[in-house]
Design brief:
Residues 404-427 are annotated as: Disordered. Keywords: 4Fe-4S, Iron, Iron-sulfur, Lyase, Metal-binding, RNA-binding, Tricarboxylic acid cycle. Helix 5 (93-112) packs across helix 32. By secondary structure, the chain is α/β, with parallel strands linked by helices. The chain has 32 helices and 34 strands.
Amino acid sequence: MSHASDSFKCRKTLSVAGKDYVYYDLKEAEKNGLTGASRLPFSMKVLLENLLRNEDGRTVTADDIRAVANWTEDKGKAGHEIAYRPARVLMQDFTGVPAVVDLAAMRDATRNLGADPKKVNPMVPVDLVIDHSVMVDFFGRKDSFEKNVDAEYGRNGERYTFLRWGSEAFENFRVVPPGTGICHQVNLEYLSQTVWTKQENGETIAYPDTLVGTDSHTTMVNGLSVLGWGVGGIEAEAAMLGQPISMLIPEVIGFRVEGKLPEGTTATDLVLTVTQMLRAHGVVGKFVEFFGPGLSNLTLEDQATIGNMAPEYGATCGFFPIDKDTIAYLEATGRDKDRIALVEAYAKAQGMYREDGIADPVFTDTLELDLSTVVPSLAGPKRPQDRVALTEAAAKFHDALAEISGGRKKNDTPSSEGDSRYMDEGATGVNDVPQDTRHGQTLHAVEGVEHGLSHGDVVIAAITSCTNTSNPNVLVAAGLLARKAHAKGLTVKPWVKTSLAPGSQVVTEYLEKAGLQSDLDAMGFNLVGYGCTTCIGNSGPLPEPISEAINENDLVACSVLSGNRNFEGRVNPDVRANYLASPPLVVAYAIAGSMFVDITKDALGQDKDGNDVFLKDIWPTTQEIAEIVRETVTREMFENRYADVFKGDEHWQKIAVSGGLTYDWDDRSTYVQNPPYFEGMTQEPEAVEDVRGARILGLFKDSITTDHISPAGSIKKDGPAGDYLVSHQVRPVDFNSYGARRGNHQVMMRGTFANIRIKNQMVPGVEGGVTIHHPSGVEMPIYDAAMKYKDEGVPLVVFAGKEYGTGSSRDWAAKGTVLLGVKAVIAESFERIHRSNLVGMGVVPFVFAETGTSWESLGLKGDEKVTIEGLADVKPREIMDATIEAADGSTRTIKLQVRIDTLDELEYYKNGGILQYVLRRLAA
């Protein structure tokens, strides 16, 4: 779209290597009235350019532009709303399938409203990378990769057929097939350009590469100076349909880095330290920008690792400016030479190029870290921000075990190993510990094998996820550690499920070239697939005897993974303690086999001559790692691997596609169904209804994640979703995961609030998605209760504590909520993405307006009724009254603040959701 406005007279031409590019010159704009623009954080300069280029007098005004330039005065605290237009959209298949389902449904609905379905197309480039579907069914064998790929296509044929149709039916939409890599690594290594270009009216326009992604770890590409973050599928759909993203001008927290990482530490240790610091500081809804001399001592992959974890520290993004390392990385990964020249020239012309010695930008607030203070670390057992120093990991696991296992008592008598241990019930002291123990824990028999199983045993060790598998330094470190361990005759414990799932095929190439893949294979870390695997709950089942031993004896088994997420119930239903760690530590814990081993002091095992081998004996040096990276990671690898990235393997090419402009829906499909959002929709929206006499579906405490609300992992046989699949002749072995079935609303609404670890306080002491239906007082699954209320014509509300909706930007957490009949969610605070997703589906988020108020302080039990009036005329962030009627008929009024934050969000809400809003505009 062309924009006539140029209030600050800054539309200029930049000539690079014989080509002319039109650009919006920030230095010129500063001369023409935008005082202070040159002192802005680099991330804010990207926003400023976005508004200058998109100024149209309606969605972007000169006042909006001034508000960004004035940032150095108010530092983001003024809360001014702007309309931001990212250059492109990135999707993965879990969140991408429902987005394409919605696009297909919108084509049907456009036709029903009498308009042309061809109008429904992405208006900005969209790339969808299929990376979330591969599961670790086969591991520790040479053919693991081939077997897992076969299983993946067998499970996901319906979804893949649908996505192939989409890639042909829609313009501006590309699909990277399965088995290629993780979306964030493909984005970093190939899709991103740092400076984007497009043709418009015969000119080439250059501007910063920006994006939103339907996965919260989109922020990884912030390491390449690409401003991007995760949004719900709902927001992403709006962005790809040409809607600006409505956002408040953010505060920007500057994170100053100095010094150099000490020998023996990794980028993973650094990122866990940064995550803990920023979580403690509080950066939800804020940008974080890294600066300082220490940046010159981090590789670009290290920066991408830090950017990746922004959702874990709670920030919108974790941005790094363009510098010489950015240019070197673009060169090393095979980007086009003209593009690389443009990136450097553009960044320097715009004042977006970082060099040591230049004055630091102005920030809202700053933190500092001296890299030399970073120590080897893990994070766990439940949250990414709960960092523990490696030296304390064993002791801290002792402490955590009591809580996880439900109040197991700490034994006061030291065991023979010199410190107090958690004994199994009945053990009163060291003399009472049975002989068949390991690390002071009773061993329980495992059918068919000689080894037992006890608390603290590591049953999953996974090198997995975008966070670390894009970083050659930590992967080479894992390979070297495996090589040295193998040479000394160490082996992985037989109860550990090992896996290696790199983020791109380039990784396999350099590991093989260095000869390290054979060492990893020897330790059981065979390639299992290119995808997220363990990090998103696709760890696959544990061997049955192991699973049975854990469940029969209520054992707290552990996983160690190089991922970014370790929430309860996420990695594997049998595993209750999950630790994030660097890839080399993942290999070390696979050898140790237990969280009770203090791997900084205890021997990992014995060599061929019976001598103890310690971690320090096999830990590679920084120099060893650097030498191998230098020798093996080449530009040609990236050029070759990405030469035909959209082509796919023979499986993908064999998929037959049916349907043309609109999709040929199959009523029998249990994967892809036409969703009900547009049923009975008219061209004009109906008036908003108040919430009257609503029943409470759930009372939840703090930190309810989108995983709790809409799990992505395995589907239980004995729940509403399992019942539905069985009734459709799907065998439990073929249930696949919730994530894979996101294109079917029937499965997903039955899975809403169905996480095995969610705790609804209306049913104290019970885990899983159950509630009490009122006034009957009957306990039942949340889905069943919601359907009963729907039949009775009763609206629903949900109450929660702080940080409701943390975690992945999962659109089904909002879609499922609305399909269950929930009209409002009332919490102490919300995570950014989930709040906007609720609004985007027509559910009102409220927070308690009075400090210190919570559903607990109000003494709610769940049998009350809630009424909120005045929603037809609601204004953004308005304070409203809610009436709560107790079971005895007594009433009281409380103050709530509506968290519809902007006028655009209000439009979405009044239309019943963002999709309805866009569809009405397209049809008009």
